[in-house]
């Protein structure tokens, strides 16, 4: 990312007008790779590449698991083109029992990172490859800005917008597309999942250094089995890349073999990479860094040890990161992200009286709302997981107060405590921050405490019921926890809703319901969440963008102005999404598939609300100028 940004600034000065193009990129990256190779070889001439043990490679677990990514690809293809989700459901069912299988069998611990990666990439490919078009989260906005860079061959940093300030969007994606000779859409659907799939491996290594292989293994599976991992972040590339660098930062903190200048340089690289990848993650890290630096100073102010000198989290690093983050967004965008942060703090203070109002806190709204069965159970499982975390964090705090050894590295422990505090802060009255993403982001610190808290809960029951032998709970608690993980994936992925309950039930992984999408009752949350374009919508949008009068506005439902951004940017920019009191006097009316088939329109996103189409669009006294059976376009 930084290489691309550097040549984007320097090459135009020497006459290269399109630095983000094939020849400049190939030349620059090859030169940098050769220089790095020379540096590595000169400093470590005894460097050797180690190959895995063949016994591990040909083991049944490894050989069978290598098929899972292909099953995921074929299953996604089947869902995408044939509306058949059977293969994906079978894969989700098998993935859910992997932790239990590995705990019941004797397996080489050396293969655990490979099993984790196979599970990770299988989950991540299952969602983006199931849709023909970019259809979830902010992927369509990211595509728009990345496509501008690719078409122009240069990044224009003066274009306003938060997304245009993120190198993960405007530099990394175009570079992948150019060097791999791949469509930009496929970079989002294939390259990003491959990139992001290594995040759980980094977390596993960080957790393993502080706990054990099995606890770290189960912690990472909890991280992967949350729907945010494979549903939202498989599409939302900027947040996924930011989490990848955060995982590397966590690994660096816990690594005792790297110290001094190397650790400081790597810290700066990883932290600055987070800044240019995702503004929400960078602001969250600002809070964690400043608070953790202050806490560490208060804990150790009276006695400075050798360990304190080697510490990664220092005041200078926190100040440097904070200044860089704020300067980057203020200079490179219209600072709407900065305004969001300031507005959040102001809103928190002025509206504290509405602290537990479901209308102002999304967390409270999500907890108080009645959801379909699968989402309701997923919510309960997440609450239970937070209960386990609370037990683990409480025990950690108690051990720190008593100055007992915790097993966790000091900086990681403080960051984990503060992360749990940030989870509690999501009850604050704000809609600007996605609770699911924040929890998943902070799971980079909190995931081990789900398992540790469960262990301590078992120890508490063991002391209460003395009839249990000491080794009985210890022998079975991880297996019981693996059942908890199995339930988490089965309900989050849609296995239960599509195989058992069906009817009006739907899961957080809403794309898996595609075969019966139009038969599910008119649920406002489901309709507003099912952001999947079909061919008829794409063809009609392109037709309208070519035929319409550019001076006349187009009215459509919420999200569709963004969904159509990669397909018909001119139509998207001149569109207005309808609300509860929108009055349409003159303009085009684009009725999407659920407007026509279901006869409803989404008029509000938080909380979602729907109305009959005839109450929102004045179609009775308007002219129908286009229809293809699923989409209708009117003019008034």
DSSP helical segment count: 32
Q: Walk across the major sheet and give the strand order.
A: 2-1-3-7-6
Number-wise, the strands total 7
N-C termini distance: 47 Å
Q: Tell me the overall shape.
A: globular
- What is the structural class? mainly alpha
What is the residue-averaged pLDDT? 84
**Spans with pLDDT under 50 lasting ≥5 residues?**
347-359
Largest beta-sheet details: 5 strands, mixed
Helix content: 55-70%
The amount of beta strand, in percent, is: under 5%
Radius of gyration: 26 Å
Oligomer type: single chain
Overview of this structure, please?
It is globular, with a radius of gyration of 26 Å. The two termini are 47 Å apart. Helix 5 packs parallel to helix 8 (112-126) and helix 24 (435-464) runs antiparallel to helix 25 (470-493). Helices cover 63% and strands 5% of the residues. A 5-stranded mixed β-sheet has the order 2-1-3-7-6. The chain is mostly helical and 636 residues long.
């Amino acid at each position: 990312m930084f290489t691309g940004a550097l040549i984007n600034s320097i090459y135009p000065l020497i006459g290269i007008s399109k630095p983000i193009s094939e020849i400049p990129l190939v030349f620059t990256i090859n030169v940098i790779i050769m220089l790095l190779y020379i540096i590595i070889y000169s400093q470590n001439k005894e460097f050797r590449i180690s190959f895995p043990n063949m016994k591990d490679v040909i083991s049944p677990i490894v050989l069978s698991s290598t098929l899972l990514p292909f099953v995921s690809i074929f299953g996604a293809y089947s869902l995408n083109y044939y509306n058949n989700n059977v293969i994906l459901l079978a894969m989700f069912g098998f993935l859910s029992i992997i932790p239990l299988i590995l705990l019941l069998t004797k397996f080489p611990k050396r293969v655990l990172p490979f099993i984790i990666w196979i599970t990770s990439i299988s989950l991540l490919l299952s969602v983006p490859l199931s849709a023909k078009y970019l259809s979830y989260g902010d992927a369509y906005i990211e595509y728009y800005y990345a496509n501008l860079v690719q078409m122009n061959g240069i990044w224009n940093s003066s274009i306003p917008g938060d997304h245009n300030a993120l190198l993960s969007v405007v530099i990394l994606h175009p570079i992948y597309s150019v060097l791999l000779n791949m469509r930009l859409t496929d970079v989002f659907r294939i390259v990003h999942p491959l990139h992001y799939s290594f995040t759980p491996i980094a977390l596993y290594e960080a957790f393993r250094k502080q706990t054990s292989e099995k606890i770290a293994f189960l912690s990472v599976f909890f991280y992967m089995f949350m729907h945010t991992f494979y549903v939202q972040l498989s599409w939302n590339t900027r947040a996924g890349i930011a989490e990848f660098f955060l995982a590397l930062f966590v690994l660096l903190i816990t690594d005792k073999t790297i110290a001094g200048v190397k650790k400081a340089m790597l810290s700066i690289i990883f932290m600055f990479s987070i800044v240019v990848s995702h503004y929400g993650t960078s602001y969250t890290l600002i809070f964690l860094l400043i608070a953790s630096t202050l806490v560490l100073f208060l804990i150790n102010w009276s006695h400075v040890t050798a360990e304190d000198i080697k510490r990664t989290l220092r005041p200078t690093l926190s100040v440097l990161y904070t200044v860089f983050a704020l300067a980057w967004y203020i200079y490179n965008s219209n600072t709407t992200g900065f305004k969001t942060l300031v507005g959040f703090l102001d809103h928190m203070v002025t509206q504290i009286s509405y602290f537990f109002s479901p209308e102002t806190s999304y967390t409270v709204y999500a907890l108080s709302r009645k959801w379909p069965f699968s989402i309701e159970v997923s919510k309960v499982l997440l609450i239970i997981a937070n209960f386990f975390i609370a037990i683990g964090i409480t025990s950690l705090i108690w051990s720190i107060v008593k100055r007992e050894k915790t097993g966790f590295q000091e900086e990681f422990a403080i960051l984990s405590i503060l992360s749990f505090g940030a989870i509690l802060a999501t009850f604050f009255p704000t809609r600007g921050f996605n609770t699911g993403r924040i929890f998943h982001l902070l799971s980079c610190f909190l995931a081990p405490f789900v398992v540790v808290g469960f262990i301590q809960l078992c120890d508490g029951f063991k002391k209460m019921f003395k009839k249990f032998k000491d080794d009985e709970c210890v022998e079975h608690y991880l297996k019981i926890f693996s059942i908890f993980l199995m339930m988490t994936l089965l309900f989050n992925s849609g296995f239960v809703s599509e195989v058992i309950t069906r009817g009006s039930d739907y899961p957080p992984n809403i794309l898996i319901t595609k075969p019966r999408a139009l038969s599910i009752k008119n649920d406002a949350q489901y309709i507003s969440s099912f952001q999947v374009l079909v061919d008829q919508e794409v063809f009609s949008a392109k037709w309208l963008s070519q035929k319409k009068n550019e001076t006349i506005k187009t009215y459509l439902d919420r999200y569709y102005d963004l969904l159509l951004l990669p397909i018909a940017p001119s139509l998207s920019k001149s569109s207005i999404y309808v609300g509860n009191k929108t009055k349409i006097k003159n303009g085009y009316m684009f009725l999407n598939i659920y407007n026509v088939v279901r006869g409803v329109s989404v008029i509000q996103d938080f909380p979602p609300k729907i109305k009959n189409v005839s109450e929102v669009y004045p179609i009775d006294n308007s002219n129908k100028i286009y229809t293809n059976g699923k989409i209708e376009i009117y003019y008034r």
